[in-house]
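Dataset card, provenance and construction

Sequences and ligand SMILES were collected as paired inputs. For each pair, a complete structure of the chain with the small molecule in place was predicted and serialized as structure tokens. The example below shows a pair involving zinc ion. Curators did not alter the output after generation; any descriptive sentences attached to a record were derived from the structure itself.
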Amino acid sequence: MDIHFLGAAETVTGSRFLLDTGKYRILVDCGLFQGLKKLRLRNREPFPVEPSSIDAVVLTHAHLDHSGFVPALIKQRYTGKIYSTPATFDICKILLPDSGYLQEEEAGHANRHKYSRHKPAKPLYTEKDGRRALKQFESIPFNEEFMPVEGVKIKLSPNGHILGAGTVQVKQKDLRITISGDVGRPNDPVMLPPSDLEETDYLLVESTYGDRKHTTQQPQEVLKEAINSAFENKGTVIIPSFAVGRAQTILYLLSVLFKANEIPELPVYLDSPMAINATELFYRHHELHRLSEQECREIFDMVTFTRSINESKELQLSRQSKIIISASGMLTGGRVLHHLKQHLPNENNAIIFVGFQAAGTRGAKILSGCESIKIHGEYVPVKARLVNMENISAHADYTELGDWLSHLPSPPKKTFIVHGEPQAQDAFRLYLKDRLKWDVEIPSLNDIYKIKHK
Ligand SMILES: [Zn+2]
């Protein structure tokens, strides 16, 4: 069996690992490269192996850096199945068509403003392609072994990252390979802790926080303080948030604060159709998270969903104190920009950042202390109070990862560190060597590791 590291090698996006048995090829994750332009251009390069030669695709979870290349692979003649857990499939139904839509928008924008090198700019795939890709999905429940190709057994076990996210275990005769996927945290307020790893010969482990420890800050306390102070000033609180996962955690924390009378009875709006759909999935997949049916219901009772553009516009004009959760999380687009235009120029309002703000995004610029920010072609003064909420990540930090790995009954023959920036990977390599005395390697992009059969 060969392992081809086709993405998420020395970077955090573009997860793609190809297992080649000599007879069959299985692709674990099929993600988009995201972030810097240099990385995004990789999405346009020819796929390193002929897509029609791949026999099966298995997804660890629905985030686009793990699933977002699926429609492109299908456009390039991949005709096999996409195996995922039912919750991952449900989230892909939301994310993949939306991803196609955004790419069409971007290409349209590039053509209107003539900044693309390709004339005319073409989307990697369209909304229709995103929808069509869903037809090739097949749901496999957690902890159920399936055989995508003859002689290879695969099982997904929950790893606490987001709804439906799992670690992939591959077995071929007596050879065992485990791919961690993105690993969640032991004490997340909403997600269950990652399930214990089973013994394995080879391990691919993520390292997003390979050099960082989460702070001890209590997210609930930060929310409480920011909301109370905005309320005293008769202001509004805007929470830009990723639609899947983060928005639901914030809703849950708000419902806890309301119940304990820690914050005033302000109206809460979820102004993002994607986030609304994702929230409904928490109801459907209640066995995959910590919230009881009662707690889910309390969230639904607490929040007003604004689906239509008109409702969203009305909300922008209302002067009443309120809490608005809206996407996108890094202020790169979406409805949240309209709310910011209204609320950023007033110091009585607060903006709470609840996720990582990548370099170059409006979110990062605002947090770095700029005096005004360009939104829809006009400069908007930044006067509102800015609050940065930490310790709400969906990724385990290096000590949490180390604890999780340390429960393995015996060390893998070899561990590959993937899905991390170079300095995080190297720090994590040293940490695992020191703490667990493991044989650890950091693969580069397109490296092939050949496993000799016993
Ligand atoms: Zn993820």
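Derived descriptions for this record:
Residues 61, 63, 161, 182 surround zinc ion (CB under 6 Å).
The radius of gyration is 22 Å.
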